[in-house]
Amino acid sequence: MKIYHLIIICLFFGACGKSGTTTTMPVTPVISTVNITNITLNNVSFDNMLYGIAIVPSISIQFSQPINRNSTRAIMLKDANGTMISTITNFQNHDSTLLIQPSSALQYLSKYFFSITSNLQSASGGGLTTPIDKVFLTQIDSSNKFPIVDDSILLDKIQQQTLKYFVDFSHPVSGLARERNTSGDIVTTGGSGFGIMAIVAGINRHFITRSQGFMQLQKIVGFLKNTAQKVHGAFPHWLNGSTGLIVPFSVKDDGADLVETSYLLQGLLTARQYFTNSSADETNFRADINLLWNGVEWDWFRQNNQNVLYWHYSNNYSWDMNVKIQGWNECLITYVLAASSTTHAIPAAVYNSGWARGSGFINGSSYYGYPLPLGQVQGGPLFFSHYSFLGINPNGLMDAYANYTTQTKNHTLINYSYCVANPQNNYGYSNACWGLTASDIQNGYTASSPTNDIGVIAPTAAISSLPYTPTESMRALKFFYYTLGDKLWGDYGFYDAFSLKSTWFANSTLAIDQGPIIVMIENYRTGLLWNLFTSCPEVKTGMLNLGFKAPYL
């Protein structure tokens, strides 16, 4: 027993040590970096840019471990201008999950930037291994921006507002249409032809008086006859609206432009057919138009009697531009007028061997179930089915190459179907938001089409197709006006183009896009411009000589 007690005493004093106190070893804390294991925006994986996000979004971030609450200043939400958006942060799962929401609703159709920098720390003090930067776009405001009105009243409003571009904004000296709303003295001959037809429609709808419209048209015709420069009777693309001098469209495009001339003459002949009174003013007006019409040397543009027409001729550069007018594109009207001339007509061989022998003329394939007789793959930009057909009525029109009712309608339906299918996943495309054609784009201009789709919609594309696709076009027109009207509707009607994907809206208006809107709405409603243009006896003869057949010929 004594030995046992001795052992117990020794163990006791040995454990206490010399000082009689307990010694512990210091523990070094473990600092671990933190990773993001999952991030969602409104329960959708936030890996790429997301579109159409609700204006009170919820961002959920899961971390590999709890984070330091004092470091959440590293989490930021900013608008496109770099302004910080106030947010509310909720901590969940022992601070390893964060739920972030803006303190108040965001703006509609706006880009926002969400980021987490490496300054975010774990609860143990470790940094974020991989900072992130994410972008999302909020949804469209689907509310109506203007009161709902009857469709007929809406069409009146759009035609009347758009007409202001050609009346209120016309050049004060020449009366011609400016190229665009920022063009100053530069006027466009082709766009003015569209504007002349628009003025006729405006008179007929009583948006302006007959006297008011006629006075402007007299001014235009007088300027074209007495002041404007011409080359072999043809007009350039651009003129100075004050002096009538040629304004080069490009370095060598400083002379005649036969296609723009044909658009101008399409309008002038339409006006000639409208003003049929026997008064001296209207008689002289018709005589002046005939002088301009008969002065165009269409056959000269065969360049030494070739069986094709050439687009340009310059007194300075001769035929250097060397662009043949070959189909299928917007230039059918050029061949029709060239064949209709009573002074410088071309024979049918020029049409058949020139226009109809273009490399992109015959198509014959189907797209989205719609056969396309002519033109490029998937039809090309929609202005191909607009510019020539402001005056030429495609309904019941046929020649050796196509049924033009089918051509124009199916071209439009292919364009529409492409936008609905939206193979490029461009945000906003739908059965109410469609239409690819030539228009302004951000920092430039392009001819949009199913094979050149950069996400830009031009209102003129769908609206000017009303005669071909009334249901689809009217749906788009209402979307542009009622839903996007706060951004897309201006002093001269619809602005030129927009991209919901890029949240970009043009502030420009162009004569060649505004004119077809008025004219084709009117053709849809009454056929007025079709009836006037095709009533020209010369046009009937010319089209018959080219082999066209139609009820109106």
Topology of helices and strands:
Layout: H1 2-16, E1 36-41, E2 44-45, E3 50-53, E4 59-63, E5 75-79, E6 87-92, E7 97-102, E8 111-116, E9 132-138, H2 151-163, E10 186-188, H3 189-204, H4 210-226, E11 238-240, E12 246-247, E13 256-257, H5 258-274, H6 280-295, E14 312-313, H7 332-340, H8 348-353, E15 366-367, E16 370-371, H9 404-421, E17 438-441, E18 444-447, H10 459-463, H11 470-483, H12 485-488, E19 489-490, E20 493-494, E21 498-499, E22 504-505, H13 511-525, H14 528-533, H15 537-545
Parallel strand pairs: 3-9
Antiparallel strand pairs: 1-2, 1-4, 4-7, 5-8, 6-7, 8-9, 10-11, 11-12, 13-14, 15-16, 17-18, 19-20, 21-22
- Walk across the major sheet and give the strand order: 2-1-4-7-6
Helix content: 25-40%
**What oligomeric state is this?**
single chain
What is the correct CATH architecture of the largest domain?
A: Alpha/alpha barrel
- How large is the share of residues in beta strands? 5-15%
CATH homologous group name of the largest domain: Glycoside hydrolase 144 (GH144)
What is the average of the pLDDT values?
Answer: 95
- Spatial extent as radius of gyration: 34 Å
Classified by CATH, the class of the largest domain is Mainly Alpha
The biggest beta sheet reads: 5 strands, antiparallel
In the CATH scheme, what's the topology name of the largest domain? Answer: Glycosyltransferase
Description:
- The longest helix is centred in the last third of the chain and has 18 residues, at 404-421.
- It contains 15 helices and 22 strands.
- 45% of the residues are buried.
- It folds into 2 domains: 36-138, Sandwich (Immunoglobulin-like), CATH 2.60.40; 151-545, Glycoside hydrolase 144 (GH144) (Glycosyltransferase), CATH 1.50.10.140.
- Strands 2-1-4-7-6 form a 5-stranded antiparallel sheet, with no helix packed on it. Strands 3-9-8-5 form a 4-stranded mixed sheet, with no helix packed on it. A 3-stranded antiparallel sheet has the order 10-11-12.
- It starts with a helix and ends in an 8-residue tail after the last helix.
- The protein has 553 residues and is α+β, with helices and mostly antiparallel strands.
- α5 (258-274) packs across α7 (332-340).
- Residues 1-17 form the signal peptide.
- Residues 42-135 form the SbsA Ig-like domain.
- Keywords: Signal.
- Residues 324-537 form the Glycoamylase-like domain.
- This is Glucoamylase family protein.
